Amino acid sequence: MTLRIGMIGPGGMGKAHIERIHTVISGGRVVAVSDVNPDNAKAVAEQIDGTAYATSAELINSPDVDAIMIASYGPAHKPDVIAAIEAGKYVFCEKPLAPTAAECEEIMAAEQKAGKKLVTVGFMRRFDASYREMKKILDDGEVGEALMVHCAHRNPTVPEMYTWDMAINDTAIHEIDTMRWLLGEEFVSARVDKPKKTSLRFEHLQDPLVLILTSESGVRVDDEVFVNCQYGYDIQCELVAEQGVVRLGDQELVHRADKLGRRNRLTMDHNQRFGQAFVTEVQEWITAVSQDRHTGSDSWDGYAAAVVCDAGVAALTADGEVPITMIERPALYA
Amino acid sequence: MTLRIGMIGPGGMGKAHIERIHTVISGGRVVAVSDVNPDNAKAVAEQIDGTAYATSAELINSPDVDAIMIASYGPAHKPDVIAAIEAGKYVFCEKPLAPTAAECEEIMAAEQKAGKKLVTVGFMRRFDASYREMKKILDDGEVGEALMVHCAHRNPTVPEMYTWDMAINDTAIHEIDTMRWLLGEEFVSARVDKPKKTSLRFEHLQDPLVLILTSESGVRVDDEVFVNCQYGYDIQCELVAEQGVVRLGDQELVHRADKLGRRNRLTMDHNQRFGQAFVTEVQEWITAVSQDRHTGSDSWDGYAAAVVCDAGVAALTADGEVPITMIERPALYA
Amino acid sequence: MTLRIGMIGPGGMGKAHIERIHTVISGGRVVAVSDVNPDNAKAVAEQIDGTAYATSAELINSPDVDAIMIASYGPAHKPDVIAAIEAGKYVFCEKPLAPTAAECEEIMAAEQKAGKKLVTVGFMRRFDASYREMKKILDDGEVGEALMVHCAHRNPTVPEMYTWDMAINDTAIHEIDTMRWLLGEEFVSARVDKPKKTSLRFEHLQDPLVLILTSESGVRVDDEVFVNCQYGYDIQCELVAEQGVVRLGDQELVHRADKLGRRNRLTMDHNQRFGQAFVTEVQEWITAVSQDRHTGSDSWDGYAAAVVCDAGVAALTADGEVPITMIERPALYA
Amino acid sequence: MTLRIGMIGPGGMGKAHIERIHTVISGGRVVAVSDVNPDNAKAVAEQIDGTAYATSAELINSPDVDAIMIASYGPAHKPDVIAAIEAGKYVFCEKPLAPTAAECEEIMAAEQKAGKKLVTVGFMRRFDASYREMKKILDDGEVGEALMVHCAHRNPTVPEMYTWDMAINDTAIHEIDTMRWLLGEEFVSARVDKPKKTSLRFEHLQDPLVLILTSESGVRVDDEVFVNCQYGYDIQCELVAEQGVVRLGDQELVHRADKLGRRNRLTMDHNQRFGQAFVTEVQEWITAVSQDRHTGSDSWDGYAAAVVCDAGVAALTADGEVPITMIERPALYA
Ligand SMILES: [Mg+2]
Ligand SMILES: [Mg+2]
Ligand SMILES: [Mg+2]
Ligand SMILES: [Mg+2]
What we know:
Number of strands of chain A: 15
Largest sheet of chain A: 7 strands, mixed
Oligomer: homotetramer
Largest interface: A-B, 37 and 37 residues
Bound molecules: magnesium ion
Shape of chain A: globular
Order of helices and strands of chain A: EHEHEHEHEHEHEHEEEEEEEHHE
Strand content of chain A: 15-25%
Number of domains of chain A: 2
Structural class of chain A: alpha/beta
CATH topology of the largest domain in chain A: Dihydrodipicolinate Reductase, domain 2
Strand order of the largest sheet of chain A: 12-11-7-10-9-8-15
C-alpha cells in the first residue's frame, strides 16, 4: 500500500524530499537510492534503512521500486527519465527536465511510445496556495482576461559560481513555468533588459536583469531577476487583468510594531517561502501515482521551459527580442 | 512501523482526522473504530478497511491498536481516556478533555499512577504557524514581558442550539488554552462584559461578549467573543509587551484590487483558518507517539482549561470578577 | 476679510496654531496676544508683528480682535471663555474646556444667555480623515449598528511629572470625545482595569491601564492607555458593528523591505500623526467663524468630556464600575 | 502682504487652484483673471470679486498682479510664460510647460536673459508626502543606490477623445517628471512595449502600454500606463535599490472587514489621490514667491519632460529604443 520510491542522486534537494516523505507526507517511502558517488548512495541508504543500487538503471528496474524520483544534476536526467518510462514507472524529475530542448523531445518521444504520461517535473510553485488562489481567480473569470504580469524573483545573495545564464536557467525558470501554467498559453518571444548593476555582486554578473516574455495572445510578462538584493527571498507576482489586479499576499505569519516600525519578517530562502508547496507537490504526486494517475507538470512543460530558457539565454546577448519556436504539441500533452 | 490508531466516536472532527491521517500525514493509519452508534462504527470501518469494535474498551485494549484518538462527545471522554492510560497507550483526546474539573482530576490521577504523560488534548492553535511565531518572539525576549493580550474570536453565525455557556466552553476555550500556552502562566480571575447585542442573532443569546482574564503575574487578556459577526471567521490576537506589540498576520493568500477596493478574502470557518494547524497537530502527535514521546497539550492543560471555563461560565451571571482556584500542579506536569 | 484672531496663553500648542494659521491656513491672522507672563506675550507679539495686551480681558474686548483662541493652562480657561462669550466673539478653546464639570456648566450658562453657540473645543481627532471615514461608514449604515469599539492610545514615553489621573484627563480624553462623536451618544458608566505594569516607567504610574466605557445604548468601548510603550505614537481604533468591523488605516507613507523586514515607519508623536487634523480643525474654524457659523465640538462636548473624565479618574481607585450622570442637555446643544 | 495672483485660463484645474487658494491656503488671493473666452473670465472674476482682463498680456503686466498662474491649454502657454518672465513676475504654469522642446528652449532663453528662475511647472507629485518619503530614504542612503523603479499609472477609464500620444504626454508625463526628480538624473532612452489590449476600451487605443526609460547611470524605469483599468485610480511606485526596496503606501484611511473581505477603498481620480499634494504644491509656491524665492519644478524640468515625452511618443511607433538627446543644461538650472 505504501509507494516504494527509488531516489536517484540525492543531494540537498533529494535529501529534503526524503525527509519530507518520511516525516510529513502520507503514503510513500524512499526504499532505494543510487548515486554517481556510491558512498553517498550508501550513506543515504543506511540512514533510511534502504537499499543502495550500484547504478540508476538497476534501481529503476528493481521489482522492489514502484516509482522514481530524480534529483541528480540536470545533464544526467535524460537517460534515467527514459529508462523509467521504458520500465513503465512514474518518475518525478527535479527541474530542469533536461538542459536542452532536444533532450526533452527525446523524453517526449519515449513517453509517447509508452502511450501514457509518466513524467512529472518538479515545478513546485504550482502547488503554492497563493499562486493557486491567483490562478483560481483568473480561471473563474473574476477579473476578466489577463493582460500583463509583473514578477520579481529576488534572492539575498548568490555565490561566485553563479553565472549569467543561471539567472535564466535556474532562477527565471520558475516564473517561466508558473506563468505558462497561470496563463494557460505559450510564450512566443523573449527579451532581456539590463538595468544598472548592483555594486554588491561578483563582477562578472549582470544583476539585476529583467526578462520580458510575450505570450501567444499578447500577454506581457516581466520578471525582475535580482539575486543579490540583500534583504530577503522575495517572490512578487502581480497579475493585471481587464477588471482588476491580483497580487501574491505578504506571507506574513505575524506583524509587529517596535522601534524599527510596523513590520513583518521576510523569508530568506525558497525552503522557507515554498516549504509547504514542496510538501504539497510531493504529497500530490505520491497520492496520484498510488492511484495510477499523472499529476503536476508534464514532459511538455519541461520541454517548453527548456525552449523558453534557451530563448532567454540567447536574449542575454541579443539586441532586442528573440523569437520562441516550439514543435507542435503532441496529442499526449493536449 | 506505521502507528496503528484506534478512533473512538468519529463524527465530523474524527472523520476529518481520519482523512488527514490517510491522505496528508506520515506514519499513522486508523485501523479500528468504535462508536456509541454501531452503524456509524461499521460504516467508517468499512471505508477505511479497518475493524469496528463493539465497545471502546475492546478497541482500547486490542493488541492491534497502538494508540487512541477520541473524538466522541465531551461527557463521554473520561472513561475512555482513563482506559487508554491504564492500557499504557498514548491517547489524543479532542477538547474538552472532560466537561468538569473533577473528571480532569480523575484523569490526572490515573496518569500519575501510570507515571507517564500519555494524554494529549486537541488544542490545535498551538500548532498554528502564526501563533507559534508570536510565542517565539515573546520567548526570545524580543519585545520584553507580556502585559496584555487583545483577542477576538468571531464566527459568521451560530445555530439556534448554541447557548450562552457555549460561548465560553466551546468558543473562548480556544483562547483560554492558547493564552495559557503563550504566556506560560495560569489565570487567577475571570470577568465577562456584556456589550450591546447584535440584532442578527437568536434572541436568547448574549452576543457579543467580552471575557477578561487576569494571569498570575497580572497580564490582562481580553477576548471578544462574537459568534454572529456575519462577515467571516476572524481570529485576532494582539500581544502587547513592554517594548513592542505583535499581531497575528492577515492570513491572506493573495490580495486584489477591483471595484470593491483593495481586498483579500477572509476565512469562513475554523477548517479554512486552522486547516494546516490540524495537520501539524496530528502529524506531530503521530511522530512523537511513534518515538514514545509525549507532545502537545497535556492533562493539566485540559484540567486548567476546564477550571477557567467554569469561572468564565460563572462570570456570565456574576457581578464582577470570579476568582479562579486550581489544585497544586502535580509534579508530572511541572 | 481676514479674521483677526487674539491668542491667549501661547505655549507650545498656541505657537503651533499661530504657525499653522500664518503659513498653511487661509483666511485668518493672529494679531493680538496676551499671557500671564507678559514677556512671553511681548515676544510672541513681536514675532507676528502683532499687539501684546496686558490682560486677556483687554484682548478679548479689543475692537481689533474678531475671534479668540485660548491655549492657556486648563484651570485658566473659564473666565476667558466666558468673557469671549459676553463679548459676542467666537472662541476656540484648547481641551479641556475647563477642568471641572461645574465650570463647564458655568460656561454653558453664559452661552445660553448669549443665545448662540460661540465656543469650540479643540478636539482635533474629529478632523482626522481616517476617523471621519470611519464615522461616515457607520453613519451611512454600511456596517449596521455599532456594538463595541476597541481603542488603544500609545505614547513612546512620558516624563516623571505625568501622574495617574493624566492618563484619563490628558490622554484618554481624546478617545472619550472621539467616541462620543463617533457613536453619537453619551456614556453612562466607566471602569478602569489595571494590567501588569511595564517595568519601563516611573514607579508611581499604573501603565498601561484600560478604560472601559458603556454608552446609553450599551455600546462597549475599551481604551488601552499605554504611555510608555517605547515603540511609537500608535493610535488604534476598531469599530465592531453588526455586519462588519472598521479600523483606522496604517497611516503609512511608504513601506519598504530591507534587512529588518517589510516595514513602515510609525509616527512618534501627536503632531506627526494628527498634524493634518490640526490644520483642518483650525481651517474649518476660521472658515466657519468668518461666515458667522459654529463648527466642531461645542461647550456641551467640553462638559461631557469633563464628566466622563471625572468618572474615569474615580474609576482609577474605585472597585468596579462608576456611574456617569449628566445634567439634562440644554436645548442650545440639541 | 497677501500675494495677488492673476489666473490665466481657469478651466477645471485653474478653478480648483482658485478654490484651494481661497479656502485652505495661506498668503495668496486670486485677484485677476483672463481667458480666451471672455465670458469665462468675467464669470470667474465675478465669483472671486476680482478683475477680468481682456488679454493675458494686460493681466500679466497689471501693477495689481504680483504673480501669475497659467492653467490654459498647453499650446497657449509659451507666450504667457515669456511675458511673465519679461515682466519679472513669478509664474506657476500647469504641465506641460509647453508641448514642444523648442518652445521650452525659448522659455529658458527668456529666463536666462532675466537671470533668475521665475517659472514653476505644476508637477504636483513632488509634493506628495509618500513620494517625498521615498526620495528622502533614497537620498539619505538608507537603501543604497537606485537600480530600477517599477511604476504603474492606472485610471478607471478615459473618454473616446483620449488618443494614444496622450498616454505619454498627459499620463506618463507624471512619472517622467517624478522619476527625474526622484533619481536626480536624466533619461537617455525610451521604449514602449505593447501588451495585449483590454477589451474594455475604445478601439483606437493601445491600452495598456509600458514605457521603459533608462537613465544616465543605467537605472531602468518601467511605467505601466493602463487608463481603462476599471477599478480605480491606482498609482504604484516601487523603487528597487541595492539594499532594499521602497513602495508607496496604500493610502488607506480605514480598512474594514465585511462580506466582501478585508478591504480598503481605492481613490478614483487624481484629485482624491493627490488632493493634498496639490494644496502643498500651491502653498509652497505662494510662500516662496512671497519671499522672492523659486520653488518646485523649473523650466529645465519642463524642457526635460517635453524631450522625454517626444521620445516616448516616437517610441510608440518605433521598433525598439529611441535615444533621448538634450541640450546642455544651462548654468541657471544647474
Ligand atoms: Mg522544484
Ligand atoms: Mg481542537
Ligand atoms: Mg486638541
Ligand atoms: Mg499638475
